[in-house]
Write the structure tokens for this entry.
Amino acid sequence: MTGTEHVKMEHNPRKVWARILTGMVLSFSPALLCSQLSLSTVVDLAQANSSAVKLAQADVKKAQAALAETQDVYIPTLAIGSTVGYSVGFPTGQPSIANASTQSLVLSFPQRQYIKAARAGVQAASLGLRNAQEQVALDASTAYIELDTVNRELDVARQQETYASRLVEIEQERSEAGVDPLNDWLQARLTAAQLKLKRLHLETRAGTLSKQLATLTGLPVGSIAPDHASIPEIPSFKALDAGHTMAGIESASVLARSKQLQARGDNLARRRPQVVFGAQYNLDSDKLNNYSTYFNHYTPNNFGFGFSIQIPVFDIGQRAKARESAADALRAQVEAEQAVRQNDVEIATLTGSLRELDALAEIASLKQQIAHEQLAAVLAQLELGNGAAAGPGAQPQQTPKAEELARIDERQKFADSLDAELDLSKARLGLMRALGHMEDWLHELHTK
């Protein structure tokens, strides 16, 4: 036995250097303080900066140390020391001026279970680390995609404000000329005010998302400008596509198995014998005492070794410990089963929501296309006329007012379409993680 066992970690030097260079550029170059970063870079930085990931890494190291501890009991220990002291009369202890002792476990039935439990603990901690990395990737991806969508909606909102400003001017002129009532002018001002409020809301949301990404990545606030081209298409999964198990659920299951092995070892400890090897060397001296006066066969060099066999007969404390371990194992098993049930419910919920969000996204897209065609028709009529002769029942000629209203409506339908796509993307990412396909998404990010 080696006494150590390490978890194989994926190491990509190019990815590491990309993180380092990105951090250096953004930290030391004010001119590039706000620059476009790809989604894959943001995810890498978030995983490297995440406290949850660092805690999970510490758990892995702790589990590895615990495994080494359970295995190393078979490797002999060595200790040296001295018990030098002065005594008068009958000596109270062995006159050792130097000593060395060694000890190791030879045979232990429960120790085998403890080693298996520690190995399962390392596996559970590794899965917990992967689960933390996937959760950070999901949070960073969601915030990044939403910030990209909000920035696009902000551009739309500014365009709408421009159209609304023109509409107010047109209505004011028409009202002053007596063509339209004053109420139309007030309605145009109300539309402009509502669009301004919408822009302010989007700016606030963009600021919040920028702060969230800065917290995730450790970069300055506002230093991340999303690159829309770096966002790959999010695949659509169904509940039947659950070919993987989510790392968090798998970690809970392995941890439950580790607790069960630990409980089995504690139960064996009160029923199975244990064999320990030990040896000791003493260099004795009677210079500081009268040891040789009372012991005729005194020698300065003394050595001994042997095996210690312990057969448990009655140990009520160990029995209580076994019951405690069994209770911990039962709790871990119930928690693992509960995690599975909760994940199944989440998958069912997200699957149902996806069907609705797919339909809503399609409706929003069709409305945007219709609004675009209506705007094109208005612009064509303004340029060429409506083709209808003047007279009773003829279709009225389009006006600049109708143009601005059509432009505002088309931009609104486009923003609604962006919102629907964002909700759909969030649901797809959530279902992807619940089905255990988050690694596929990370692979897609780094290959785009």
